[in-house]
């Protein structure tokens, strides 16, 4: 491929990202949550016992905004704050109802992703997943039955679970 044939990755990925983001927002909204509330719940369900600061950092999300999201998730019986060993740190536990909510939203998101990528054969969708895992430097094995959010445009929520931010 010559430099004239090559296109910027963001130019190629941008429309796909926007479609995926709209689908995720819609799926979460239909379940009565914002995309961010789904993302918080999803990360907490995947890695039980994280603090709200750790969840915010993994999502590159505001440490202040997550408080309101957790208040709502707790009021709806989807998550609980539990006192930590030093009483200054709360861990977040996802309730069975919260796990059911994540599973339902995730199934709807995956269905929307399949529809968005329906012009690709199944092997092409699998290859895309594999290449994205490789590009992010992650193992390509599927995650446990749970995942995702970001405040930075162009980066998917929970795209960098190893990221920490100053804050």
Automatic annotation (TrEMBL):
A Pfam match is MarR_2
Instruction: Identify the residues that the record assigns to the HTH marR-type domain, covering every copy.
Output: 6-137
InterPro entries tied to this protein: HTH_MarR-typ, WH-like_DNA-bd_sf, WH_DNA-bd_sf
Q: What Gene Ontology molecular function terms does this protein carry?
A: DNA binding; DNA-binding transcription factor activity
What Gene3D superfamilies does this protein's entry cite? Winged helix-like DNA-binding domain superfamily/Winged helix DNA-binding domain
Q: Which domain of life is it from?
A: Bacteria
Record keywords, A-Z:
DNA-binding, Transcription, Transcription regulation
The molecule here is called DNA-binding transcriptional regulator, MarR family
**Species this chain originates from:** Krasilnikoviella flava
């Amino acid at each position: 491929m010559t430099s004239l044939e090559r296109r910027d990755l963001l130019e190629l990925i941008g429309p796909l990202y926007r479609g995926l983001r709209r689908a995720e927002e819609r799926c979460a909204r239909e379940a009565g949550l914002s995309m961010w509330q789904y993302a918080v719940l999803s990360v907490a369900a995947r890695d039980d016992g994280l603090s709200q600061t750790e969840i915010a950092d993994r999502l590159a999300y505001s440490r202040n905004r997550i408080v309101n999201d957790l208040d709502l998730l707790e009021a709806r019986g989807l998550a609980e704050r539990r006192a930590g060993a030093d009483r200054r740190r709360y861990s977040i536990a996802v309730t069975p109802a919260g796990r059911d909510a994540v599973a339902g939203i995730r199934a709807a998101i995956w269905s929307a992703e399949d529809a968005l990528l329906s012009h690709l054969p199944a092997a092409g969708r699998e290859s895309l997943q594999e290449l994205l895992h490789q590009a992010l430097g992650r193992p390509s094995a599927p995650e446990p039955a749970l995942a995702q959010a970001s405040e930075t445009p162009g980066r998917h929520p929970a795209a960098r679970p190893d990221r920490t931010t100053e804050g």
